[in-house]
Amino acid sequence: MTFSKIGIVGAMVEEIELLHKHTDVTNTIHKAGITFYEGRFHDKDIIFGKSGVGKVNAAVCTQVLIDMGVDCILFTGVAGALDPELEIGDIVISTSCLQHDMDVTPLGFARGVIPFQEVSDFNADPRLIELAEQASERLFNGRYRKGKILSGDQFVASRETVKELYEDLGGTCTEMEGAALAQVCAMNGIPYVVIRSMSDKADGSAHVNFEEFTVKASDHSYRIIDDIISRM
Ligand code: SAH
Fold first, then answer.
1. Out of 43-47, 57-61, 111-115, 213-217, which region has the weakest mean confidence (pLDDT)?
2. CA distance linking residue 203 with residue 153, whole number of Å
3. What is the model's pTM?
4. Whose CA is nearest to atom 4 of ligand 1?
5. Does the beta carbon of 177 sit less than 6 angstroms from any atom of ligand 1?
6. Alpha-helix runs per DSSP H in the chain
7. Cα–Cα dist 212/210, whole Å
8. Which tens digit of pLDDT belongs to each residue from 187-227?
9. pLDDT for 56-73, tens place per residue?
10. Cα separation of 150 and 101, whole Å?
11. Euclidean distance between the first and final Cα of the chain, in Å?
């Protein structure tokens, strides 16, 4: 597979610090309040940045990366599990991403649907999904799921919301950036995949689990990215 410049996004410092540690950084660029690091990783040209939390931050970070000439984007980070079979540390690979907080239901649109737009559930790239799947198979013995990732500007920490997002919207996990990144990639015709490791179960204990497991989960997500890029 030939991608000539790979963009990588994480929302928080924990999600990109391992990548930073293992990259031979050759250039640092400041744009829109975000610091981007350009360098070589597994003999490939990469640019990565910490977007900050939430959809607006993710969207801006993604557009800046695209304007810098990346030809694919990988997201590495943590999320709250929605699928009850997922355990903390397990991996979710996006087949698509949807904004669960896009809600124009009073005007007759289904929840998650962006009005007057053909697509609201943005498909990830099949080649990148396959690479992520092969990496997860090898590194985590099949402890992964492929599925729809739901994004919204809210930290989900209630069993009722988990049930709703899982049953009504078919989400595998929930986080705060993926669908924004996916939408910007779609607008620019750039392939993407989101790789998330579960830091919590998005329930009443989410705020307790979150900090404890973010480091472990970020490590899992980084290892997948490392394996993917080594085979690109
Ligand atoms: N680190 C900050 C805030 C983190 S917000 C703090 O502790 O103050 C949560 C981040 O992790 C977001 O980037 C989001 O994408 C992801 N995330 C993990 N679990 C989540 C959940 N249950 N609901 C929503 N986002 C979650």
1. 213-217
2. 16
3. 0.97
4. 53
5. yes
6. 13-22, 55-67, 126-140, 159-167, 178-188, 206-230
7. 6
8. 999 999 999 999 999 999 888 889 889 999 999 999 999 99
9. 999 999 999 999 999 999
10. 9
11. 5
DSSP assigned state of 54: S
Model confidence at 1, in pLDDT bands (50, 70, 90)?
low
**Whether residue 34 has its Cβ less than 6 Å from ligand 1:** no
| Of residues 122, 119, 131, the one with CA closest to residue 195 | 131
Burial class (CB in 10 A: 0-12, 13-18, 19+), 101: middle
Secondary structure (3-state) at 194:
strand
- If you measure from the C-alpha of residue 54 to the centroid of ligand 1, how many angstroms do you get, rounded to a whole number? 9
Among 146, 145, 131, 125, residue whose Cα is nearest residue 224: 131
Q: Which of 121, 125, 200, 203 is catalytic?
A: 200
Is any atom of ligand 1 closer than 6 Å to the C-beta of 79?
A: yes
Q: Which residues of 133-157 are buried (b: 16+ CB within 10 A; e: fewer)?
A: bebbeeebeebbbbbbbbbbeeebb
Q: Are 139 and 93 in contact (CB under 8 A)?
A: no
pLDDT number for residue 11: 98
The answer to whether the CB of 34 falls within 8 A of the CB of 185 is: no
